[in-house]
Amino acid sequence: MKARASDIEGLATECDIDSIGVTPAYPVPVDADTFTRLVSNAPRDLGYLAARLKKRLDPGLMLPGVRTVVSAVVSYGGALPGVEALPPGAGFISRFAWSRDYHKVIGSRMKRLTYVIEERFGAKALWYVDTGPVLEKAYAVAAGHGFVGRNSLLFTPRFGSFVFLGTILTDLDVDAPAPAPARDGCGRCVECRDACPTMALEQDYVLDSRRCLAHLTVSDRNPPSPELAPMLAGNLYGCDICQDVCPYNIKAEKPDRRDFAPLPGLYMPMLDDVLGMDEDAFLRVFGRTPVRRRGLELLKATAGLLKGSSDIDRVG
Ligand code: B12
Ligand code: SF4
Ligand code: SF4
Question: Which string of DSSP letters, residue by residue, matches the chain?
Answer without folding.
Answer: -EEEHHHHHTTTGGGT-SEEEEEES-S-SS-HHHHHHHHHTS-GGGTHHHHTHHHHT-GGGTSTT--EEEEEEEE---S---GGGPPTTB-EEPGGGSSS-HHHHHHHHHHHHHHHHHHHH---EEEESSSSS--HHHHHHHTTS-EE-TTS-EEBTTTBT-EEEEEEEE--EEEPPPPPPP----TT--HHHHH-TT-TT-STT---TTT-HHHHTTT-SSPPPGGGGGGSTTEEES--HHHHT-HHHHTS-----GGGSPPTT-SS-BHHHHHT--HHHHHHHHTTSTHHHH-HHHHHHHHHHHHHHHHHHHH-
